[in-house]
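CORE FACILITY INTAKE
Project code: CF-77B
Contact: R.S. (postdoc)
Sample description: multi-component assembly, two entities in total
Requested service: structural model of the whole complex
Turnaround: standard
Below are the sequence entries exactly as provided by the requester. Do not edit them.
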Amino acid sequence: MKNSTLTLGDVLPADLKSKYADVLDVTMEEAIQIAKLSMPPSSNLSAIQVNEIEKIYKTYLAKHDDNSDSAYWNKSAADNTAYWSKNK
Amino acid sequence: MNIVNRNFQVETASLSSLLKDFYVPELEGLTGIECFTKIAKFTHRFPENLSPFFGYEIQLGTNIYQADFLFCVSNASEFRNYVDSELSENGLDTETIEGLNKFSSFWLNKTENRGNQINNIWFEFDYNEIEKSRPKACFFFGPKLNVNKLEILLLTEKVFKKIFNKKLNTSTLKTLLEIYLFLEKDSFVSQIGMMNSRNDENLRLFIQGKSKNWILPFLQKMSYPSISNPEFLAHYENCVRISSTVDLDIDISSGIGKNLGLECYFTSTENVLLFLDYLVEKGLSTIQKSDRLKKYLLSLKPDKTKSYQPFFSHFKLVFKPESGFFAKAYFGYVIQNLSQKIIQTKPIKNYYNEKI
């Protein structure tokens, strides 16, 4: 499958669209690479635009803490048993 | 693991053999013997270690005894092994096997990153599909909770392209993002699915809330059109009153769909029974189904020596503004080491022996 062509402008709600009007054409793939992986932006993006992309990304950070310590579907039986023993 | 069947033939342990191992006569009273036999035959293709959590969905408002079958997969490698076995046996249609093949590679991160953002997947087979030679499934995936919501949009786009070769509308993904913004802290979308066997290309979301009465404020924020429907409000209030938690399932496209489901979970079996009585009183369950489900609940005996635990999961009240409510019950089996996490309803102790 080719990379997604979805842009920030395709999915952001109206209030964020007007707030971040300069980055609406940036693809979601590139936005995530910039904000999450600190990848260099394409040459036509300014530092201000990069900053705006990072702000948008932060708006949609998970509200949950990283649940690395919780019992989890894809953990081993031993990990889950240890979790439940600890949390009884 | 291999087992020896009654004809002394060695066969690979499957979900079918688990269903047979856990068979109790009270189950037949809910699914019907013909349906149970068909599901047991159908699930022979799924290896035992494929699913940590599987079970039945039945309709309560009818005296037709049938069940849909659902199962969860949480291990990408086990899923890949299953798909490999289907590839070698050539028992599925080209379209289905191509989707399973592409998706399982994606989940294993063989082709690209992002597959590791999936926590688990679910397949649901409607009974009328189980009867077909080439059954179609409804499919759901659970994104991990710590994934950024923008990434979940890309993940969703990829998953349904892989599994069903469907391109999602941009407006559907926009609605999904809007929902994430409206959810309160600690509420989350546990499953994102597509009811493919029903030719429905909307996304179906299962949303779990933290507070008990979270659904109404959320629906108000989403401008749900039937929010003031008196029947909806009355049932919603009773769901909140009797259940310990109520989750929501909704369909989305360019907005939130008009049909929804209230998923009611209980910590005590007494409240399950109370809720069943409520469903009978409101005409949402037949007395026969209610009595049979009560008998099944009574038959559930925790046994920590077994690899799986049978249990009652929850009720769902489906609301369709044009036709009203109907009710379903879900029960199944969960692998022992997940049972404390999954089983919410404590088993009953000598409560209904005299009453039924």
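Facility notes:
- The longest strand of chain B covers residues 308-320.
- DSSP finds 13 helices and twelve strands in chain B.
Invoice: internal transfer
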